[in-house]
From TrEMBL:
GO molecular function, one term: catalytic activity
Signal peptide (residue range): 1-29
Residue ranges, annotated region (Disordered): 173-233, 835-903
NCBIfam families: ExeM_NucH_DNase
Name recorded for this polypeptide: LTD domain-containing protein
Pro residues composition-biased segments: 215-233, 844-871
Key words of the record: Membrane, Signal, Transmembrane, Transmembrane helix
């Protein structure tokens, strides 16, 4: 999320000698006030909220800077009679700028809120009164419509507030409903209900009604005459300096506030899209690598909306005022002295570094990034602002929980986590457009082909990019704003890493885990009072905090189902463990629990052919407390057969999660000889542990509810400890590979196949890839495994391709294919039955012609009859004694003779006899447990 999209200046603003003060600000809440409240976010920190702290955003609607000193933001409860909190203001807001005043927090959910001034007001998330006051004394607000009051600049009442302007604004939902109330435009009509609307897109630092003035924009002097490129040279007393002298050797220009004259070549023009300016670089800039303390040879020139008649390649001389605006050095109020057309400059080689001082030496210069880059984040910034996060190197940033346990390897975990900042940089689109609001402009860097995927290699074009600092981050900017309808305007190309099918994993049967993204055939439109998210034309897409969690309308459901069907039917799996499918009886007690499951199978068979798929029915008895989403199985009857009824683990550890579902299976069509021993049966357990989004945070960097997931892992391991068949645990464990819940399962004897085969990851969060989805095998199950893979069709794709984002932008990115059918990637595992070849009996010997006596010619039974000992395979793979336990015994000492878990002592004669007897017992047990097929 970009922050600070409008200007806030302190000492630097004062040095421009611009009018500040509030002599023109009315002391009433009259229409078209110069200083108004533009957004109220009162749910910070609650479950599902994007930001941790609440905030009140102020907007300067005037054409002059406004000094906030002596003013305050105050809060009163909806039914209160007096103000409960006051935050005194300070600072200056530039024309068209916003100022974010921080407030309290309900919990620790969400990102850090970008604020210009911290505060502690404790706003209610549903009902309350926010007051922008003249002065810092608590104001007395009557319980009525307050439009004119000498102490109130602006006031917003929301929900059931007893004070408001004309009528209170509606703050939709509860504390767990993501969103804020924001103005629809910059005109204050003194009617809260008309001026404010609920929005799920919370944008601190961005005006809510569209494209704001850029945060780096200095105030525009409305009295400046148009620039005439033929004007005579300016007063020679204006010092002529190099761009590097304006930049200086530190982070702040040494010429702040001074009018200077300089020359350079235009390297980028951004007169549209919100930047309102161009980039200038010294044509004699050195090409050698720069170090900390070197001065940059590039600078941004802010022109304001009027622009300037220059194009890329022009050699220009101009005057302007040097300054710092949100840590970007720039010239403002430029006057063009001389212009000569020319050829564009070549970009300067730039090797990635996270050293801010070295980056400062290249600020606003045209550069050619060296080395490898890949896309590392295409979520929030792409959706809202048309920008991508790139990682330096050949792979995206891996979540530290994939590689290190955050408790026992805390230092290594922290070092890995830091890479999300130290190894990344933003690829911006040269605009400040908020595409979540400006939906009639085509979004940048994305199309139906989906080439800007996580991990996709990025190649920079020869024209180069501009390295600058804005929106609180270092960015690669294109030399001109990207046109979302013209991919040729992008400064990079992407290697498309999509595959039409998953990698081969071998095996007679393939298992898979697939999260079907809240597949509900019960729709939001059929639920009374269910609200919805909508597309850019107001059409409903998905249910918004209702009992049902999926599609709102039949049209949206069809779009969702088409994608899921395409993914499953191309997966190549025979048994699929599903997560996030509706439990219809939990939504409506009169319905069959398996209705949605049957609906999905019918859609799959309509596409793949009748009878291709079937589902495992729910057990006759379903434990109480069923969630509205559940786990389930679908399978191909031609490949496998479910054996017995499915089983649900009814354990208190799963009070806040979906209960595990187990099923025994038999592989069909296994070829085996008359005397072969065959293990063709196995058990699967599909899981969906408690999410990280809510619950207690134990402070171990494993998300909320980590203790719950640990307890769930222990209960699962204990449940399967006595299982006689090979066991596979599949599903969404909501835990990364090295986190505590997974360690419990490893300790119980299970192997994570993703880790075992070093597979790609299944999920993206916060710019880091990791696996929350796993397939684990116990010892005997591992012997059946032929291979495994992750099919990256979901997590690496932009959410803009999801069915829920259909028609979110004028460039509709929905396609009826498998890509972004869910937010988790499926895991596929190949398995073979274990067939141990037996020995054929020896043929009857032919009697010798010269030996008439029967003794020598009669074959003895010993050599010809296969005895159980030497020819019978051991029963180890299915013997319960080999099942994993929660606390396995210690292994024997390495390098010494001994048995696992025993001291390494020599074996005595008595022990040999004992071992022989034990072997006979095990062989007998194996005969019982391993089915011998007779053909």
């Amino acid at each position: 999320m970009r922050h600070h999209r409008t200007a806030l200046a302190f000492a630097a603003a004062a040095s421009l000698a611009l009018p500040v003060g509030l002599a023109t600000v009315p002391a009433t809440a009259a229409p078209s006030s110069d200083l108004i409240i533009s957004e109220v976010y009162a749910r910070g920190g609650s479950t599902n909220q994007p930001y941790k702290n609440k905030f009140i955003e102020l907007y300067n609607a005037s054409d002059s800077a406004i000094d906030l000193s002596g003013k305050s933001v105050q809060y009163r409860s909806a039914t209160g009679t007096s103000v409960s909190g006051v935050t005194a203001l300070s600072g200056v807001i530039q024309p068209g700028g916003v100022f974010v005043v921080g407030a309290g927090s309900n919990a620790a959910n969400g990102e850090e809120t970008p604020v210009d001034l911290p505060g502690t007001l404790n706003l209610s998330g549903t009902n309350g009164v926010v007051i922008l006051a003249e002065g810092t004394e608590r104001v007395n607000v009557p319980a009525k419509s307050v439009v004119v009051d000498e102490n109130i600049i602006d006031l917003v009442g929301y929900g059931t507030a007893n004070a408001f302007e004309t009528a209170a604004a509606t703050y939709t939902g509860s504390n767990s409903t993501p969103g804020a109330i924001a103005r629809t435009n910059s005109t204050d009509t003194d009617d809260n209900s008309a001026d404010f609307t609920f929005t799920a897109d919370v944008t601190p630092g961005t005006v809510p009604w569209g494209d704001p003035v850029d945060p780096t924009d200095p105030p525009v002097d409305p009295t400046d005459p148009p620039v005439d490129p033929t004007d005579p040279p300016v007063d020679p007393e204006v010092p002529e300096v190099k761009i590097s002298e304006i930049q200086g050797t530190g982070s702040v220009t040494p010429l702040d506030g001074k009018v200077v004259k300089t020359s350079g070549v235009v390297t980028g023009t951004h007169f549209t899209g919100g930047f309102n300016g161009f980039y200038l670089m010294d044509e004699n800039a050195k090409t050698e690598a720069r170090t900390a303390g070197d001065a940059s040879d590039g600078i941004f020139v802010y022109t304001g909306p009027k622009g300037l008649d220059v194009t890329i390649g022009d050699r220009v001389t101009l005057t302007g005022t040097a300054g710092e605006y949100y840590e970007l050095t720039q010239l403002s109020n430029p006057t063009l002295v001389e212009k000569t057309a020319g050829q564009p400059l070549n970009p300067i080689p730039f090797t990635f570094t996270d050293n801010a001082d070295v980056r400062e030496a290249y600020e606003s210069m045209l550069v050619a990034p060296q080395g490898d880059y890949v896309v590392s984040d295409n979520y929030t910034d792409l959706t809202n602002y048309g920008s991508l996060k790139l990682a330096y190197g050949t792979s995206p940033i891996v979540h530290p929980g994939e590689l290190f346990n955050p408790v026992s390897q805390a230092a290594e975990w922290k070092k890995q986590d830091d890479l999300k900042n130290s190894l990344t940089i933003t690829l911006d689109d040269g605009k400040s457009t908020n595409f979540s609001r400006v939906t009639d402009e085509a979004i940048s860097y994305i199309e139906v082909g989906g080439d800007a995927r996580i991990g996709a290699p990025v190649a920079f074009k020869d024209s180069g990019v501009l390295l600058d600092y804005r929106f609180n981050a270092w960015n690669y900017q294109p030399t001109q704003p990207v046109d979302g309808n013209d991919r040729s305007t992008e400064p990079v190309t992407f290697t498309n890493t999509r595959t039409a099918a998953p990698e081969a994993v071998g095996g007679k049967v393939k298992l898979a885990s697939f999260n079907v993204l809240n597949y509900f055939n019960d729709l939001g439109e059929d639920e009374a009072g269910c609200e919805f998210y909508k597309d850019r034309e107001g059409n409903p897409t998905t249910a918004n905090r209702c009992t049902v969690r999926g599609a709102y309308s039949a049209a949206a459901f069809e779009r969702q189902q088409v994608k899921i069907v395409a993914a499953i039917n191309k997966l190549g799996a025979d048994v699929i463990a599903l997560e996030e499918i509706e439990a219809n009886s939990a939504v409506d007690a009169s319905k069959d629990r398996d209705e949605a499951l049957a609906n999905l199978v019918a859609a799959l068979n309509a596409d793949a052919g009748a009878g291709t798929w079937a589902f495992v029915p729910s057990p006759a008895t379903v434990p109480a407390g069923d969630d509205v989403i559940r786990t389930a199985y679908i399978y191909k009857p031609a490949a496998v057969k479910p054996v017995g009824e499915s089983r649900i683990l009814d354990d208190g550890a799963f009070h806040n999660a979906r209960k595990p579902l187990a099923q025994n299976w038999q592989i069909l069509g296994v070829e085996a000889g008359e005397n072969d021993t065959v293990q063709d049966s196995f058990t699967t357990v599909v899981n969906h542990f408690k999410s990280k989004g809510s619950g207690v945070d134990d402070g171990t960097n494993q998300g909320n509810a980590n203790p719950d997931r640990i307890a769930q892992a222990k209960a699962l391991a204990a449940w399967m400890a006595s299982e006689e068949l090979p066991v596979f645990l599949l599903g969404d464990f909501n835990a990364y590979t090295k986190e505590d819940p997974m360690q419990v399962l490893y300790g119980a004897g299970y192997t994570d196949l993703g880790d075992h085969f070093d597979l790609s990851k299944t999920y993206l969060f916060g710019g880091q890839v990791g696996s929350l989805d796993h397939v684990l095998a116990d010892k005997s199950a591992l012997e059946m495994v032929t291979g495994a893979t992750v099919w990256n069709i979901n997590s690496v794709e932009s959410i803009l391709l999801e069915y829920s984002r259909h028609n979110a932008n004028i460039k509709d990115l929905y396609a009826p294919d498998q890509y972004r059918s869910s937010d988790h990637d499926p895991v596929i595992v190949g398995i073979n039955p274990i067939v141990i070849k037996g020995e054929d009996p020896d043929p009857e010997p032919t009697p010798g012609p010269t030996e008439p006596t029967p003794g020598p010619t009669d074959p003895t039974p010993g050599p010809t009859d296969p005895t159980p000992g030497p020819t019978e395979p051991t029963a180890q793979p299915t013997d319960p004694g080999d099942k994993p336990t929660i606390e396995p015994p210690d292994a024997g000492k390495p390098g010494e003779p001994g048995l696992p878990g025993k001291p390494g002592l020599p074996i005595t004669g008595a022990e040999i006899v004992g071992i022989a007897l034990l072997a006979l017992v095990l062989i007998g047990a194996g005969i019982v447990l391993i089915r011998r097929r007779t053909r």
